[in-house]
Write a structure and sequence with these properties.
This protein has about 170 residues and is α+β, with helices and mostly antiparallel strands. The chain has a single domain, classed as 3-Layer(aba) Sandwich (Aminopeptidase). The protein has four helices and seven strands. Helix 1 packs across helix 2. The protein is globular and about 35 Å long. The model has no long low-confidence stretch (mean pLDDT about 95).
């Protein structure tokens, strides 16, 4: 497994461009991350600009895994939960560049997100992933528990429906 530098991402022109490229590539490769193929670069950039704006307000943290100067992957830790759920956080938008897959990027990102959630006083993580071609094996390897599947939850990036699998993990 390679070693990656995990850093909190902020809104710079270069970071926005790399995140947009990663999102477009992920969707083109069939990643079910809320967007349809083909995804315009400008739409991907707008998404990340909004996401990093929310991060600047403390509503989330966007982490990046760096292989030298290459943004190998990203994950978002959602922290803005309702008042009756201050103890939990949600994992979103775990993505790895196609040419970086199988090198441990996702595992490193998830470990950093979990550590950060613990630092922020969270004791429960939740996430969802596509039932078809999602990251369920990774999440189960990392100790997440499958709650169940919601069938026909979303469209796959290239069309057709897929279910979503709901996971949770106690942390801290």
């Amino acid at each position: 497994m390679s070693s990656f530098a995990i850093r909190t991402l902020t809104s710079t022109r270069q970071t926005l461009e790399m995140l947009a490229e990663l999102l477009v590539e992920t969707v083109a490769a069939g990643g079910s991350v809320s967007f349809m193929h083909p995804l315009a670069h400008e739409a991907a950039r707008d998404f990340w600009e909004k996401s990093l704006g929310m991060a600047a307000r403390g509503e989330r943290v966007v982490l990046g895994a760096w292989d030298g100067e290459i943004l190998a992957g990203t994950v978002t830790l959602l922290l803005d939960c309702p008042p009756n759920q201050p103890h939990r956080a949600e994992i979103a938008k775990l993505m790895t560049r196609v040419d970086q897959r199988g090198k441990g990027v996702g595992t490193h990102l998830m470990g950093a997100a979990e550590s950060l959630a613990v630092e922020k006083g969270r004791t429960l993580l939740v996430l969802d992933t596509a039932a078809e071609e999602g990251a369920s094996r990774l999440y189960e390897k990392l100790g997440f528990t499958l709650t169940g599947e919601i069938p026909d939850y979303a469209l796959k990036p290239h069309g057709g429906l897929t279910g979503t699998l709901i996971y949770w993990k106690r942390i801290g």
